[in-house]
Amino acid sequence: MRSKILDLLRQAGDGYVSGEEMAERLGVTRTAVWKHIQELRNSGYEILSHSRNGYSLRESPDSMLASEISHGLGTEIVGRKIQSFGEVDSTNNVAKKLIIKKGPEGNWEDMDGLVVVAESQTGGRGRLERSFFSPAGKGIWFSLVLAPPFAPHEAPKCTLMAAVAVTEAMREFGLKPGIKWPNDIVFGGRKLVGILTEASCDIDRIKHIVLGIGINANMEIKDFPEEIQQTATSMSIIKGEDIPRVKFLQAVLRSLEHWYKVAMEEGFGPVFEAWRKYSVTMGQEVRVIGVRGGEEFTGRAVDIDSYGALLVETDEGVRTVMAGDVSIRPKS
Ligand code: BTN
Fold this sequence. Notes:
The chain has nine helices and 14 strands. Helix 6 (155-172) packs across helix 8 (245-266). By secondary structure, the protein is an alpha+beta fold. The N and C termini lie far apart (61 Å). A hairpin with a 2-residue loop joins strand 12 (310-314) and strand 13 (317-321). It has helices spanning 2-11, 19-26, 30-42, 66-70, 91-101, 155-172, 235-239, 245-266, 269-278; strands spanning 46-50, 54-59, 82-88, 115-121, 139-146, 178-180, 184-187, 190-201, 206-216, 285-289, 296-304, 310-314, 317-321, 325-328. The longest helix is centred in the C-terminal third of the chain and has 22 residues, at 245-266. It has three domains: 2-59, Arc Repressor Mutant, subunit A (Orthogonal Bundle); 66-278, Bira Bifunctional Protein, Domain 2 (BirA Bifunctional Protein, domain 2, 2-Layer Sandwich); 285-328, SH3 type barrels (Roll). Biotin binds at residues 90-92, 121, 124-127, 130, 132, 134, 141-143, 194-196, 212-214.
C-alpha cells in the first residue's frame, strides 16, 4: 500500500493529490491513507499536507527502502523483487532463510534476482569466517539471489562477475578502484567492498547462489573499528563527498544484470576479460595462505585459469589457488 501511495504522489510531480482521490483509487478509507502517509513520514519522506489540495511529496530519504530502490530501477531480473529491512544479522542469512522457505522442491527460478537489503547488520559475515563491519546509515549491505542455469563449478565465477559489476558501477560514479583476487574491491591498497558468495548445488547444476555484497559508502575513517582503520576506506573518503546510496545501489544492480546476462548468453569469457582489466593482483608478488591453516607460500600472480582460480608462479612451478587469503607484498 505504501508503495502505491508513493506512486500516486510521484505521478503528481510537484503538485498535490487529495486524500479522497487516493482512497478511491486504492479502495481504502481516507483515514487509512492518512495513516500510511504518517508511516512514510516516519521513515524519512517529506510529505506536505494541505487542507484542500491534499498531499505532495517533496523529498525522499536516501534509505535502503525497497520502494526507493525499485523506483526507476528499470531492470528485468536483478531486483525484480526487493525486500528491505532495518536491522538483520546478515542479509545472506535472511536470503537463505527465504530460500529454505520454498522447501526442497522449491521453484528456484522464482527466486532469480531477489535482492535482500538492510540498513545495518549485527552479524555481517565475510570470507574465511571473518566478521564484516556493517553499521547503519553509512553503507550498502545486500544479497542478491540468483538461480542460474550454470554447472556447480561455475559458482566461483559468479563472484568474479559481481566484482566486475560493482567496479564498473563505481567507475560510473567517477571512482577507479581495482579488484584484488578473488573479489575484494580496493583503492590505494585499502578495502572498499567485500563479496561473500554462498551456493547450493545439485550434482549437475546450481540450485541458487547468494551473492552477498558489502560496500563502504559513506564512512569516515573514525567510523571503522580501530583494527581496520589502516586497511579500510569508503567511497566518500575517496571522492570527498557523500554518495547517494540508493542511486549507487541502483547502478550496481543494473551492472549486475548486464554481466549476469552476458554470462548466460556468452559464457564467462567476457567477465574474465573485464576482471583481468581491473585486477590489481596480476603481475604482483603475493603471499598466499591456504584455507583452514593451509600451507603458506609466495610467488608472482600471473593469471586466472578458466575456473577463476589464481595462478601463482613460484620457484617450484605455477601453483593454482582456488581459495585462500592472498595479500599483495609491498615492493622492496
Ligand atoms: C569479505 O570481505 O570477506 C566479504 C564480505 C561480504 C559482506 C556482505 S554485506 C552483505 C552480505 N551479508 C553478509 O553477512 N555478508 C555479505
